[in-house]
């Protein structure tokens, strides 16, 4: 991939990682597929990464909701790994 395509993904991944670390205390380590899913869901729900860079609270709230939902989905996965 060229740098022009990679840069937005790097920004999105950083924002996602920061949100997960700050919002979810027992968050599992993010993997590449997790980033891809969260980015895709955010875009599908009408979110725009450029709006987040400008501090648009509507898009930040949307991403928060998506990260929270993702965190809740990880619960059963973590339990199955413990057993």
Provide an overview of this structure.
With 83 residues, the protein is an all-alpha fold. It has one domain. 78% of the residues lie in helices and 0% in strands. The protein has four helices and no strands. It has helices at 3-23, 32-44, 49-53, 57-82. Helix 1 packs across helix 4. Residues 79-83 have low confidence and may be disordered.
Q: Radius of gyration over alpha carbons?
A: 13 Å
Beta content: under 5%
Shape assignment: globular
What would the average pLDDT be, to the nearest integer? 82
Write the layout of secondary structure elements.
Elements: H1 3-23, H2 32-44, H3 49-53, H4 57-82
Helix pairs in contact: 1-4
Quick structural overview:
By secondary structure, this protein is mainly α. Helices cover 78% and strands 0% of the residues.
Features:
83 residues; 4 helices; 78% helix; disordered C terminus
């Amino acid at each position: 991939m060229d740098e022009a395509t990679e840069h937005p993904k790097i920004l999105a991944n950083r924002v996602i990682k920061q949100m997960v670390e700050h919002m979810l205390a027992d968050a599992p380590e993010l993997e590449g597929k997790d980033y891809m899913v969260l980015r895709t869901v955010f875009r599908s729900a009408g979110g725009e990464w450029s709006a987040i860079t400008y501090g648009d609270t509507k898009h930040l709230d949307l991403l928060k909701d998506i990260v929270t939902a993702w965190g809740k989905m990880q619960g059963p996965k973590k339990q199955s790994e413990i057993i």
